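User: structure tokens for this one?
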Amino acid sequence: MESIFHEKQEGSLCAQHCLNNLLQGEYFSPVELSSIAHQLDEEERMRMAEGGVTSEDYRTFLQQPSGNMDDSGFFSIQVISNALKVWGLELILFNSPEYQRLRIDPINERSFICNYKEHWFTVRKLGKQWFNLNSLLTGPELISDTYLALFLAQLQQEGYSIFVVKGDLPDCEADQLLQMVRVQQMHRPKLIGEELAQLKEQRVQKTDLEHVLEAHDGSGMLDADEEDLQRALALSRQEIDLEDEEADLRRAIQLSMQGTSRNICQDSPQTSGTHLTSEELRKRREAYFEKQQQQQQDPPGHPCEKPNTSSGALDSDLGDAMSEEDMLQAAVTMSLETVRSNFKTEGKK
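Assistant:
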């Protein structure tokens, strides 16, 4: 439907748009229609002057504004009718008794001009199809043959005056093209006001989206991405904390071992003139436990197969064993105190 001429509404120039959409071209301008309106005003003035220029009716007529045009761009049916006479066209009222007696099917006509209050628009047949060329629409509206009569009846119920255009319309490219092909319309055109409201709503939605993006520092990051980032940072901090705890534990154990070895060497009783090392202490402890196990295996009151020893020797062995046990207990106690002391020192740091 690109070949169809369709003027959209500008100001109140609907009469101009109606005529140009009917003739399918820029045939009339506001200046030309104003000239026709002034000519009609002058003809009316001359008729009123015939009754006397001093009459009350003539004075009243001169004081009244023009009935054929106004400053907004409105033009009367007389202006439109005179403009069409230039092209040999005339207007007949659709619901007049004279036309209704003809019983003409609307689809057999070529065009209609519709008027409600101060708005004019054209319904015209191009090729083999009808189109609503209302300047308030965003584009031509396809009307089927079966819907045409219903459409005109609906306009009449809404208060429109409908005029049938009689005569041969000038040739146009759209009419020639649509004689060969038929068009289909997937979406009906909207009123210009509806389209502007939709565009305004789209601009508002776009502005709201920009505000949302600005609230996210322009990154447009989704909530899911933010949660993933926060989760990754938390895991990273946990790993760092775990590594720090492991390092602290290894350092505490090392300090404990150093302090335990130093305290044992300094404070334990001397044997054979040398200090006990941790290895020697371990061996003494193992020997002590072996003796304890042997004594538990030998039942009381039965002679043992071990070589006889004197009571002095037995007391000496028992004394040695008790001495080793005391030393082990002392070593463990010192080790625990050293660990506590080291943790307190680290905590103060």
